[in-house]
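Lab channel / #folding
Pinned by the channel admin:
"Please post every new chain as: sequence first, then the structure tokens as a reply. Keep commentary short and put observations after the output so the thread stays searchable."

First post following the new format, from NK:
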Amino acid sequence: MTRSLEGKVALVAGATRGAGRGIAVELGAAGATVYVTGRSTRAQRSEMDRPETIEETAELVERVGGRALAVAVDHLEPGQVQELVARIEREQGRLDVLVNDVWGSDFLIQWNTPVWEHSLERGFRMLRLAVDTHVITSHFALPLLIRRAGGLVIEVTDGTAEYNQRNYRVSLFYDLAKTSVVRMAWALAEELKPHGGTAIAVTPGWLRSEQMLDVYGVTEASWRDATAKQPHFVISETPLYVGRAVASLAGDPDVARWRGQCLSSGELAKVYGFTDVDGSRPDCWRYLREVQEAGRPADATGYR
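Reply from TO:
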């Protein structure tokens, strides 16, 4: 990857693991100074109770030649977010890319549970973590981002707009969480347009996150073993793939052509020419429509 983001400053809110970590690493590899935030540190875990930390993410960014600063932030706490942005302004004097990737709600999901049976406490907590955090972060970060034309906001979601429109997503609360940030990208794009900025929703495909690998009892090196349990896992992708999608967008001088849209890592790979770490280009959402939903046997030929 070229150092197309040299001199740029990025904030990846929710960079502890998964897509956020992959995005932070690839933004750093492209030359950006990256602030990586989250609640899980080496001193204390978040309610997700997983081992990944923001310090570890920062080290991964540094390992690929980037510059990273790990900052413990609860993005539901306005005061903490305000201080984070004040620090970025103090230390860098600018913000070019904001990635809203805060999620942290996997442990709250109640699969295929109607709203009258779903825990209200867990459902509302999911919405707070998945939606309110993005709004709070945008509220405080965008005044700094719009000081220069060309600012970019990435809203990370799960599912393309077309897929989400025709599919029930797990539960009412999960559905609302993931579709809300797609609409948020559209609304933010409208608000940023007069200032020369834009916002885009980006979705990875079937992500081989740390937690997903644990679910299947595999590692990144042995991930294909999981296809014995779930054959369609063959279309999965690493977090670095969506990271390369975001880095490509951030380095595109004509990124405004995507204003307000919801784009997938697989779609963007075809446009920008990047690949996943194994040299393939997984197109998960097309695969889901044309293979899995169509009831065809698992076969990623032509989709990678």
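NK: The chain has one domain: 9-208+239-277.
TO: also worth noting, The chain has a mean pLDDT of 96.
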